[in-house]
Amino acid sequence: MILQIDAWNIRERDQWGASAACRKKGNEPERWHWVYTGTCFRLDHRGQTAGGRPVIAERGFAATREGLEALREQLHAEARRRGLGQAAGALVIADGAVWIWRLADDRFPEARQRLDFYHAVQHLAAVGRACFGEDQTRLRAWLKPLVRQLKNEAAVKVVRQLEEILARLPSGPVASAVRTEVNYFHAHQERMDYPTARRRGEPLGSGAIEATCRQYQCRFKRPGQFWSRTGDEALLCLETFWRNGRWHLLFPHAPPFDPAKN
What we know:
The protein is α/β, with parallel strands linked by helices and 262 residues long.
């Protein structure tokens, strides 16, 4: 069972019409809030199109504005419906957000954890930009072998090279930026076993949940849209029921339909 977790922002009418009064009191009105989102699917439901594009034949969804507690329960329930209890194992894939790994430790303690490969590459690139600035030729020449090594060999070798770079740098902004990235890789080193993932045919990245977040956003971030917490949670529930193929439980009188034509 593969589980992927992320979050995106929704715009609400917080203190609508009272913005000026709030600012006079020194309180900036909040408009954007996190929607916590997850998806889960079995490994054998992954495949490819004739053109080689990865696809997932069947998966479950969870999305809520009600906080991490709500996501934790919703995603766990959906994973159970999709076969978590009978799965040989579970794998959580996500970016480096601390809240995600805390949720995984709490609700899926037996699951393995994997840092999204492409986020790891972005942090490698951040080291390169700190060291080489705008020199794209040197950056690419430095980055390419490290990315290959991270993907095909051991993350510990990459981390060791970053430590060597840091040791040679004098104190200053560049060293500070590189140290931040080195600490990031230390924190996630056990989540970066990408060669094993490739041997097992498991996904390296969290593209499925990132696509899911974009799809939800397309519905909730249309021009001029503002939501209330009550309204957005209600529509999130309906959207998720539809995505999970349980629309008939809400509208049993409605005839079957093709979701691709919705």
